[in-house]
């Protein structure tokens, strides 16, 4: 069974503008169709793999408000950015949640083809018992790319 969704959308904006939005934690709240992602905790621009950036989140079915600490796993300026969400439990030591997000950008004519991939294949069963995985339908990725496109173009 495939535990991955992927969607592609053509943006009128150049890759540099799309990547600038994705590498700015302050704008992540505009990259999805709901209000799950809130403001950035860490506001420094993302500039390398291994960096951790945190954002405030809110999900009723995940217990309400919480902070998600995202470890950047892929970083190729103007081409690829990806992260592995996780948290630092009491006692320390960041722990991955078992799912990841990745954006791949490809120049296309006067714009950019943006592919968003969400993979939940490494999510532990204990977490799946609390939160259904994936927590949204495949169309969520289409809606997320549409929201990001509106932000980048707007």
UniProtKB/TrEMBL annotation:
The record's section on Gene3D superfamilies has:
3.30.530.20
The record's listing under Pfam families reads:
Polyketide_cyc2 (PF10604)
Provide the protein name: Polyketide cyclase / dehydrase and lipid transport
Q: Which organism is it from?
A: Tsukamurella pulmonis
